[in-house]
Amino acid sequence: MDKIVSDRKIDEYYMRRALSLACRGTGKTSPNPMVGCVLVRDDRVIGEGYHARCGADHAEVAALEDLARRGETARGATAYVNLEPCCHVGRTPPCAPRLVEEGVARVVAGMTDPNPRVDRKGLEVLRTGGVEVAGPCLEPECRWLNRGFVRVQTLGRPWVTLKAAAGLDGRIALTNGESRWITGPEARQWAHRMRASHDAVLVGVGTVLRDDPELTVRHTEGRHPLRVVLDSRLSTPIGAKVVSGGCLILTCCSDTAKAEALAEAGARIRRIPESRGLVDLGAALSCLVEEGVLSLMVEGGARVLTSFMALGLADELALFSSHRIMGEGPGLGTGLRLEAVSDSVLLKDARARRVGKDFLLEARFSCSPDL
Predict the structure, then answer these.
(1) 12, 48, 60, 124: the active-site residue
(2) Are 185 and 135 part of one and the same domain?
(3) Residue that terminates a domain, selected from 125, 146, 167
(4) How confident is the model over 194-225, as pLDDT tens digits?
(5) Taking the CB of the first residue and of the last residue of the chain, which one, N or C, has fewer CB atoms within 10 A?
(6) Which of 56, 39, 360, 316 minimizes the C-alpha distance to 182?
């Protein structure tokens, strides 16, 4: 029994290293998942690697190349990988057969791949090749790291995070719409790191008209996410900063002249089915999957945030709370008409932290399906 516990702890130790490596691909691998791989023999790391970006070597191949640079061989080694090795040919060759060819003796997989093309088939290739297969190992952590990938494969939509900044009274803007700046510089820097970790950031056209945001990553390192504007009537000004930055406008408007003018100014236009005269949010999320988006951060305004909550399309909330009292103005949930307290939008797994002078509340929406 003690040996079983000891072996499990050893597996978890190296799986945590694989997860740490996988995190290095944050914001760079979509539509692929983030994967890390550690090769171990005789309780010694002999090679490791991670999937750095879409189109680059998968983690297992990167680890094997690292092993070769060290002058090692994979024969008899154990491979720790946070996601089941693939068995299909995509942009790169399959990894499971490669591990068999290299003589890897054991593979510990953090989780099976929810992609129907792979789901347990990679593990079967390994078993057929004489490789011992173990797992899942640290499965909740592995699924959480790739929650966007899991969402797309199981529900056909990205992982959706609603991000807002509010005063202590829950108001996210003044009555005139002004909201700069509710929180301090540390919270804003944190929000920019969040942008960099998401594949896309979305706002409604009202935010574009009021604030003319860039929606870029500043105050921190990281690539700019895809900038998305919900604009049912194509009201986005041609001179808006997001337009010149090459944003994607999702609309249900059929005005060809407006669309061509915005496209000439730098935007991309995609027409989405309507729902009650507005862009259908479910269809919009499906469109973003086609764009390679696994994770989406919705930044507002109030009407857009409320719409995602009302339709049960939000997975996570990131609410920055400042030390201000904002007075009258829109709040998180403004426009959400409820008949009873029991109809309230519920949160779960809430956690809070201090960020500078402000607080950040992170929580899951109770309606968000388990991973």
Answers:
(1) 60
(2) no
(3) 146
(4) 999 999 999 999 999 999 999 999 878 788 99
(5) N
(6) 360
